Amino acid sequence: MKKLAIVTLCFLALTACGKKGVDIGEKNGTGSTATYRYNMPSGGEIVDTRYGKETFFAYGAVAGRAETPANGLAKTHRFETGQSLHTLQVNIALPRNGMFYEGWVENPKTGEKLSTGHLQSIQGDARHNLSFETEKDLSAFTKVTITLEDDDGNSAQGTVVAEGTLKELKRDK
User: Fold this and answer.
1) What is the pLDDT of residues 71-114, one digit of tens each?
2) CB atoms within 10 A of CB 2
3) Which of 8, 83, 118, 164 could join 62 in a cystine, given CB atoms 3.0 to 4.6 angstroms apart?
4) Kindly report the CA angle at 24 between 94 and 89, in degrees rounded to 5?
5) Whole-angstrom Cα distance, residue 162 to residue 95?
6) Which CATH architecture has domain 2-168?
7) DSSP reduced 3-state for 121
8) Domain ranges of the chain
9) What is this structure's pTM?
10) Which residues pair with 40 in a beta bridge?
């Protein structure tokens, strides 16, 4: 019975979902706050209050590799302003001290890789988030990976612990 309770708690932690905007509160005592915003379809054209009309959208599941249990969702949006927004929400165990998770997107046709930054666990649990904005067109960057990195200043890609593939979704107009 005790094992069932532990498995149930782990399952609930790994399947937790976020809201459209999640207030992440104070960080590092600086008094600053931040919110993760998710572009959610509501029918018709998708218009973001910051970037305008959406021109491209792709999404895909992210899953752990080898001995790293993980699950999540990656999304990439492109807007008429030329901005791309890549978001990643993944449930994965906290990294050991001196380590962190980093997100990456890759163009499988050219092999070009781009770091999307460090994943953050705002609540200090398995829920990790990342939001990456760029003027680069990310529509061809359909491979998503998460690496486990030593916090040593080395910019080379570390060990891949999770991955996924984005697929374009044509929105109804």
Assistant:
1) 999 999 999 999 999 999 999 999 999 999 999 999 999 999 99
2) 6
3) 164
4) 50
5) 13
6) Sandwich (2.60)
7) coil
8) 2-168
9) 0.75
10) none
